[in-house]
Design brief:
Number of helices: 1
Radius of gyration: 15 Å
Order of helices and strands: EEHEEE
Distance between the termini: 26 Å
Largest sheet: 5 strands, antiparallel
Strand order of the largest sheet: 4-3-2-1-5
Number of strands: 5
Helix content: 10-25%
Shape: globular
Length: 94
């Protein structure tokens, strides 16, 4: 399952938090919650979104295995491959 992890640590660009998009074998958010509570470190497959679709239709680049320190994970949520709608909140479908 693909997750977006928000890490409580500075980013390379100087932000206060760092976000990681990664695949993990957890089958649900509840299972990921249990894993994060039970382990100090988890092994994930990291991906970068290339923001532009390439000619072969792939917009994700695999960046390899990554070990995350669960003590620094502030938030984890499932990640959708679909970008969120743009525009004002009032303009979004309900």
């Amino acid at each position: 399952m693909r997750f977006l992890f928000t890490m409580n640590m500075g980013s390379f660009k100087g932000g206060l938090v760092h976000q990681v998009i990664a695949d993990h074998h957890a089958k649900s958010e509840a299972e990921m919650c249990s894993i994060l509570n039970d382990f100090c470190f988890i092994l994930v497959d990291q991906f970068y979104n290339m923001n532009e679709r390439k000619e072969d239709g792939q917009d994700w680049q695999y960046k390899g295995k990554l070990i995350l320190n669960t003590a620094h994970i502030g938030k984890a949520q499932t990640h959708s491959n679909n970008p969120p709608p743009r525009g004002k909140t009032e303009d979004r479908p309900r």
